[in-house]
Design brief:
The protein has 390 residues and is α+β, with helices and mostly antiparallel strands. It has eight helices and 21 strands. Strands 12, 13, 14, 15, 16, 17, 18, 19 and 21 form a nine-stranded antiparallel beta sheet that branches. The protein has a four-stranded antiparallel beta sheet with strand order 5-6-7-8, with no helix packed on it. A hairpin with a 2-residue loop joins strand 5 and strand 6 (93-95). It is globular. Bound molecules: FE2/S2 (inorganic) cluster and fe (ii) ion.
Length: 390
């Protein structure tokens, strides 16, 4: 009698690539990510009400002082450790609820009301803090080594709005295929950006066209390095001899530059999504884009049988899975040891190699790609878009 082969019995314990996926301080990728600015909220999230923020495996408290400056501090008060989340925001900072120490947006301790003279040594105290800058309706934080702080980059597609266009920001994780916070490692999402072959399957034949008809066609795909990240070009031949050329980019460190899959009109990409690793097993996406009417960014969101993700029943999630289901379905951190990459996964392999290369640069003491200290170089030109070649 033939013996059954390939059963799950005795399967080796699976492993993941820790250097690629972990985002905490002191980990290889965590330190690479900390060399760049990351969006940690909408500009409107910084108010006189302290707000909890979690980014790169760190808990932080965000607020805006009475003079309009945003502040991002570690929550544990430098005095005796209660959370500044319970603090009160004042003209010049946030005051801890426990003994009233007052910190400004850069963590300087301004007052210690229980101490003689308001605390003679208060200026020796520094509440851990991070620099914050506002751009495109978002708040960007720099959580890396202070002496390496780069210029906050600008992006041509957001700097040059067309006639009638204005900028809009969104924090609902457009492009995740699901809710604002997605419970899996961020690299699973980022790899998906360089995986255009899943589009005609997952978003086409399998779950029914989740975008427009032409996206359901199997494209011919190429990938290459752009000097700022990876580019994927997807060609689909349309009726009448026209050619639909879709260009998507994954830009260091976390930028998804993906034109609307609804292809409302042809042209350069309308938005940028920054994937923020919240921690090792969750991420969210902040988007800024050019729009002609308020709320337009949300129209890029996937629909499943005409419904939004959060309107689906459990059966409908199972019957018409989208990006959320496939990425979360890979597990909290996917097991790379169990994968079998093939030719259509070239974009995924290149993406991993790109990060490995940057980790090598870091190890050798160099600066990763896309980190600029010269403001003149901080304008990044992007090529993504949906183009129609006649
Ligand atoms: S714990 Fe914050 S002032 Fe004492
Ligand atoms: Fe997708």
């Amino acid at each position: 009698m033939a013996i059954d082969q390939g059963t799950a019995y005795g399967k080796p314990a699976p492993t993941y690539l820790a250097a690629l996926t972990l985002v905490g301080a002191g980990t290889p990728m965590g330190e690479l990510l900390r060399r760049y600015w990351h969006p940690i909220g909408l500009a409107s999230d910084a108010t006189a009400t302290p707000r909890k923020v979690r980014a790169l495996d760190e808990d932080l408290v965000l607020f805006r002082d009475g003079t309009g400056r945003p502040g991002l501090l570690h929550p544990r008060c430098a005095h005796r450790g209660t959370s500044l989340y319970y603090g009160k925001v004042e003209e010049h900072g946030i005051r801890c609820c426990y003994h009233g120490w007052l910190y400004d947006v850069a963590g300087h301790c301004l007052e210690q009301p229980c101490e003689p003279n308001g605390g003679d040594k208060r200026f020796n105290i520094r509440q851990p803090w991070y620099p914050v800058e506002e751009r495109y309706g978002l708040l960007f934080a720099y959580m890396g080594p202070p002496e390496k702080k780069p210029v906050l980059p600008a992006y041509d597609v957001l700097e040059e709005p067309g006639a009638g266009e204005f900028l809009e920001a969104d924090d609902s994780s457009i492009g995740s295929g699901g809710p604002a916070i997605v419970p899996c490692n961020w690299v699973q999402h980022f790899e998906n950006v360089m995986d255009p072959y899943h589009v005609p399957i997952l978003h086409g034949s399998f779950s029914g066209p989740q975008f427009v008809e032409q996206m359901a066609q199997m494209p011919s795909v190429s990938w290459d390095w752009t000097g700022r990240g990876l580019r994927s070009v997807q060609i689909r031949n349309l009726e009448g001899g026209r050619r639909f050329r879709r260009v998507t980019e994954a830009v260091l460190p976390t930028l998804r530059v993906v034109p609307s899959p609804r292809v409302g009109q042809y042209g350069r990409v309308e938005s940028i999504g920054w994937v923020l690793p919240i921690d090792d097993t969750s991420y969210r996406i902040y988007v800024a884009g050019r729009v002609t009417e308020p709320g337009q960014l949300g129209k890029m969101r996937s629909k499943y049988g005409g419904k939004y993700w959060w309107e689906l029943t459990e059966d409908e999630h199972r019957e018409t899975p989208g990006d959320y289901e496939v990425q979360v379905g890979q597990g909290a951190i996917t097991f790379h040891s169990e994968e079998h990459l093939r030719t259509s996964d070239k974009g995924v392999a290149l993406l991993r190699r790109m990060f490995e290369g940057q980790l090598e640069v870091m190890k050798a003491g160099g600066d990763p790609i896309g980190v600029f200290t010269d403001p003149a170089k901080a304008l990044v030109r992007l090529e993504a878009g949906n183009f129609l070649d006649e």
